[in-house]
Amino acid sequence: MKAVIDILQREAPYLNSSRNKAMLVAFLAVFTLIFLVVYNPFNMIEWGGSILGYVGIGTVVMLVSQFPLRNILGVRKFRLYHLFIWIIGELFVITFFVYLVYGPLFPTFKERVHEYLDTLKFVCLIIIGPYFLFVWFLAYRHKLSNYQDVARYNASIEPGIDNKLLTIIAENNKAVLAINSNHLLFVRSSGNYVDIYYLKGDILSKELVRMSLKGIEVKLKGSSVLRVHRSYMVNTNMISSIKKTRKGYNIRVQHAPEEIIPVSLGYKDQFEEALALKVPH
Q1: What is the pLDDT of residues 104-117, one digit of tens each?
Q2: Are strands 203-210 and 193-200 parallel, antiparallel or unpaired?
Q3: How confident is the model at residue 153, as a pLDDT?
């Protein structure tokens, strides 16, 4: 169950950009129009409505959902669970307006609910397949772009003990991440995953990948990124404040002032030694 929750918490940046959102809406509109005209599924022409009307309703709902509604609700970045909830919501709203415009007016509430559920079934059968197919295509493009970024980064990076490139390829090649260790802020263990906080330009970013903290520690051995807790590593070059505690220290890093990173007793001596090396004599 924890693994499923961790997967659903993963970032899904495929529909964050306006370009990708517009491409999704256009693809679904064109696909649905061609599919309805060519195959006439469920004898839709006999329903009395217009195919262009059905497609138009879906397109308008998708445009409103992906653009102004997301901005109004502040959902600018999707995680996987956001994506699934959003898709389900879009299907229900599209169904509602199709039923409102073209559905027969039955005398009883039970008959209306039954008709709405029938319409929802048809909408889902038509849209869900191409919707997820296109999201998969966007995810593949995003993954391919990350591979290309890794290659460019590896070609341009200058070698050096404090300028290491942390390259992470998650299991089954599901995710690729390349970070200059100077841009990494801290790493936090989260079960079988790690949250990697880093700078993308001047923007604080986070990536959840399936990897152990020990694995990252090995990759960054000899750099300024130091293990300070069984659940944390921190870039000592990015520390903004240190507060002594009974068991060790609490530290904060630049660009993420709300995060408090503990230095535990087991790593206290190593941490103090690393900081002492940075004090000029």
Answers
A1: 888 899 999 998 99
A2: antiparallel
A3: 45
